[in-house]
Backbone:
């Protein structure tokens, strides 16, 4: 039984999700305490509980302590079951994070799976659907499996009500190295508003046009008609020869559209100036599939605490080494190999 301290490192929900994912992948049971001890409201929130229960269903697992507010539980998987699943959070909690909890096991399961996830698809505290679709899943597909995600209805924080569908054709995981970004071959910015004035999106894209000197044909305004509540997301896509990265900004009450856009511009500029293929959020997400593949290597910006915490949890379940080395100014190389 692997024992995990949920207060380790950044002390958030990523520890829980990584442990669940790798317990399903390896069949190793674990117990966890101090769940989300680093957060204002510790313990399992609704989206975390949904992820736990989804893992229970997919892994036919035995569990103790799966309830709202719980700060500890034991998880003992039996076998991963492919199939058709539907998981609904019932709030604006991120269903993209629930998806990332169960995806690793389904990538190597015996048969294809279909999943419907309902809740928040565009949440400022989690990877939005745009990032999954354009940045993360294309790398996964290059490693062997075939995963296709379709957004059926957006769900903005705090109303939620979104839905997306995923098909997973499993396969063995192959090593991938992302060392060179290659030439930038495409740039796109999309500002979406739901139940808010379209002028907000236009103001955000004006900042993108002025600050990054992009052409009008690279910019798109989307007026979302089927959203359960108000919302605004600015999504900037950098398409390079070897990888696509996505950077997002979320509209917030009391924060001007210009400020939202300028924050996003700063992250885009930092990424482009560093000349690395992998941004900070994608770096965090690639560790687990690369560990499953037995190895991989990529260059990225200075790692976050999220990334270093994730690396330590992965090593509890899989016999791999993960090294993080600075190779140039604001350019780091992370390598994973079998121990």
Residues:
């Amino acid at each position: 039984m692997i024992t995990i301290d949920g207060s380790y490192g950044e002390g958030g929900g990523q520890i829980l999700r990584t442990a669940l994912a790798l317990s399903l992948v390896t069949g190793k049971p674990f117990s966890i305490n101090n769940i989300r001890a680093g957060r204002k409201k510790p313990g399992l929130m609704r989206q975390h509980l949904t992820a736990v229960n989804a893992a229970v269903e997919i892994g036919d697992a035995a569990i103790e302590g799966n309830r709202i507010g719980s700060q500890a539980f034991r998880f003992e998987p039996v076998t991963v079951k492919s199939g058709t699943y539907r998981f609904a959070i019932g709030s604006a909690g991120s269903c993209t994070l629930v998806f990332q909890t169960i995806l690793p096991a389904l990538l190597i399961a015996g048969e294809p799976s279909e999943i419907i996830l309902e809740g928040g698809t565009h949440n400022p505290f989690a990877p939005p659907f745009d990032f999954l679709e354009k940045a993360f899943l294309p790398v996964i597909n290059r490693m062997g499996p075939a995963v296709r995600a379709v957004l059926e209805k957006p769900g903005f924080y705090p109303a939620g009500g979104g839905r997306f569908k995923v098909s997973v054709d499993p396969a063995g995981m192959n090593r991938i190295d992302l060392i060179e970004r290659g030439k930038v071959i495409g740039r796109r910015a999309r500002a979406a508003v739901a139940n808010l004035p379209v002028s907000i999106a236009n103001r955000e894209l004006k900042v993108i046009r002025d600050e990054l000197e992009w052409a009008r044909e690279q910019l798109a305004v989307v007026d979302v008609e089927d959203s359960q509540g108000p919302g605004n997301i600015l999504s900037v896509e950098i398409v390079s020869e070897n990888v696509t990265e996505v950077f997002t900004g979320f509209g917030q009450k009391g924060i001007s559209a210009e400020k939202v856009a300028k924050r996003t511009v700063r992250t885009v500029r930092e990424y482009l100036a560093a000349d690395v293929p992998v941004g900070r959020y994608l770096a965090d997400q690639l560790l687990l599939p690369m560990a499953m593949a037995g190895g991989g290597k990529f260059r990225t910006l200075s790692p976050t605490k999220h990334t270093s915490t994730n690396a330590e949890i992965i090593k509890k379940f899989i016999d791999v080494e993960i090294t993080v080395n600075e190779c140039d100014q604001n350019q780091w190389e992370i390598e994973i190999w079998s121990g």
